Amino acid sequence: MANQNLTSNDLPQFQGHYDENSFWKKLGKIAGRAGVKTVYYALVLFYTLTDGNTPAKYKAIIAGALGYLILPFDMLPDFLPFAGMADDWAALVAAVAYVATAITPDTKAKARLKLQQWFPNAADKDLGDLA
């Protein structure tokens, strides 16, 4: 199942791997290698997950995507140059597409603020369609 073709239907099975402390530890560890856009998408999903107005069905998808990101072993190990984050990126994109209506300007603002810790010079153009 762990592949670049992950869909939102695949993600809930990984929600058991999600843990907030592990999320922050993993994100800090991979931030430079993952890049601005990947970190931003992960942060937007995190802040959407923690928003009390986010529907439970969306929270399951988000927790699954973030759980997949945290997994230490998947089809494409994160340490592989270029390809290592592709499956993690696919999980994040699938989740963002599914929960797009729950992503608020406030969650994006929180994500941008936190993103500045890793990428102080990041601009909106670096954030992709979710900017």
What do the pLDDT scores average to? 86
Q: How many H/I helical runs?
A: 5
Give the tally of β-strands: 0
Order of helices and strands: HHHHH
Helix-residue proportion: 40-55%
In the residues, how many domains can be counted?
1
Distance between the termini: 30 Å
How large is the share of residues in beta strands?
under 5%
Structural class: mainly alpha
Residue runs with pLDDT of under 50 for 5 or more positions: none
What does this molecule look like?
By secondary structure, this protein is mainly alpha-helical. It has one domain (11-125). The protein has five helices and no strands. It has helices at residues 20-34, 36-49, 56-70, 86-99, 105-118. Helix 2 (36-49) crosses helix 4, helix 2 (36-49) packs across helix 5 (105-118) and helix 3 (56-70) packs antiparallel against helix 4. The longest helix is centred in the N-terminal third of the chain and has 15 residues, at 20-34. The protein is globular, with a radius of gyration of 13 Å. It starts with 19 loop residues before the first helix and ends in a 13-residue tail after the last helix. The model has no long low-confidence stretch (mean pLDDT 86).
